[in-house]
Amino acid sequence: MAISLTESAAERVRSHLARRGSGLGLRLGVRTSGCSGLSYVIDFADEARADDAVFDSHGIKVFVDRSSLAAVDGTRIDFVRQGLNESFRFENPNVRGECGCGESFSV
Fold it and tell me: What is the domain extent for residue 35?
């Protein structure tokens, strides 16, 4: 099991944590949403929870709750800039389908 960040994503998280002044790392999860079933939830991790799996990538800790782990196991998170737009992108080997707008996925 593994979750990884590209160097670009790790640098983005690192800079936001520094600006924020607190936090242990990044929290990744999923929630039921959209027309395909699941969507990613990403936030700062301010504490480690008992049911968290913790991964280290480029010096950034990524916390994933056990209930989300099966849906995101093996995911690589990138941070991309295209013109004025910037966002995290998820390369998830478990995805079997996505909605047309790209906001939700199924495993």
Answer: 4-93
